């Protein structure tokens, strides 16, 4: 009986040490501070980045989300395509309410070597179960720079970014294996940096 009691005490001690170790690891884990911004507020990047600080190098940049609206690809092209752009090869007919069009102003204060990589941006639904990214095809109708570009030093620039989400199309679809999904909801968040501080803008569709 004494041996069984001793074994039980040892097992209890080991369990308590194990639980204490888990608590200590979790307590010492790095927590990322988060800052929240509203539409119309400037988000300073400072020393922040999304994925890789050495590749992005966008210190000195600030971003401001001016407005957001949901529309079809055809409406987006009609509103924001550059003059003279050929729309012939662009899939615009399908995808009602499949574009989240965001007007964003970008400001560069003193950055001479880095730039913007908008393909890293994600708009996430308020329920946090769905996200969309900048649509390369539609963005090419607005700007001819591609999604990796820079703003002149001590200058600012405003343009419209089309966020979409591609999903698998109907089986044996004659047009495409993927189609633009309908935008879900009217409230979103977007992180302009994730490290060392996560800087998040709340986005509400007008």
Report on this model:
- With 206 residues, the chain is of the alpha+beta class.
- The protein folds into two domains: 1-30; 35-204, Immunoglobulin-like (Sandwich).
- Helix content is 22%, strand content 33%.
- The protein has helices at residues 2-28, 53-56, 73-80, 136-142; strands spanning 34-37, 43-44, 61-71, 99-108, 116-117, 122-125, 131-134, 148-149, 155-164, 166-168, 178-180, 187-193, 198-204.
- The strands form three sheets. Strands 1-13-12-6-7-9-4-3-2 form a nine-stranded mixed beta sheet. A two-stranded antiparallel ribbon has the order 5-8.
- The radius of gyration is 24 Å and the shape is globular.
- The termini are far apart.
Secondary structure layout plus pairing:
Elements: H1 2-28, E1 34-37, E2 43-44, H2 53-56, E3 61-71, H3 73-80, E4 99-108, E5 116-117, E6 122-125, E7 131-134, H4 136-142, E8 148-149, E9 155-164, E10 166-168, E11 178-180, E12 187-193, E13 198-204
Parallel strand pairs: 1-13
Antiparallel strand pairs: 2-3, 3-4, 4-9, 5-8, 6-7, 6-12, 7-9, 10-11, 12-13
Based on the model shown, name its key terms.
206 residues; alpha+beta; Immunoglobulin-like; two-stranded antiparallel sheet; 13 strands
């Amino acid at each position: 009986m004494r041996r069984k009691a001793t074994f039980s005490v040892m097992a209890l001690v080991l369990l308590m040490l194990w639980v204490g170790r888990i608590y200590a690891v979790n307590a010492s884990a790095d927590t990322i501070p988060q800052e929240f911004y509203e539409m119309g507020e400037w988000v300073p990047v400072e020393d922040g980045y999304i994925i890789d600080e050495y590749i992005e190098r966008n210190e000195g940049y600030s971003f401001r989300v001016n407005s957001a609206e949901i529309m079809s690809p055809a409406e987006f092209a009609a509103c924001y395509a550059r003059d003279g752009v050929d729309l012939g090869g662009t899939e615009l007919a399908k995808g009602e309410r499949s574009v989240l069009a965001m007007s964003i102003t970008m400001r560069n204060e003193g950055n001479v070597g880095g730039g913007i990589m908008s393909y890293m941006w994600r708009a996430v639904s308020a329920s946090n179960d769905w996200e969309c990214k900048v649509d390369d095809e539609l963005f090419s109708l607005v700007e001819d720079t591609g999604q990796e570009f820079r703003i002149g030093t001590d200058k600012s620039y405003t343009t419209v970014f089309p966020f979409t989400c591609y999903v698998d199309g109907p089986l044996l679809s004659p047009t495409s294996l993927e189609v633009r999904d309908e935008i879900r909801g009217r409230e979103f968040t977007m992180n302009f940096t994730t490290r060392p501080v996560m800087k998040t803008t709340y986005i509400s569709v007008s």
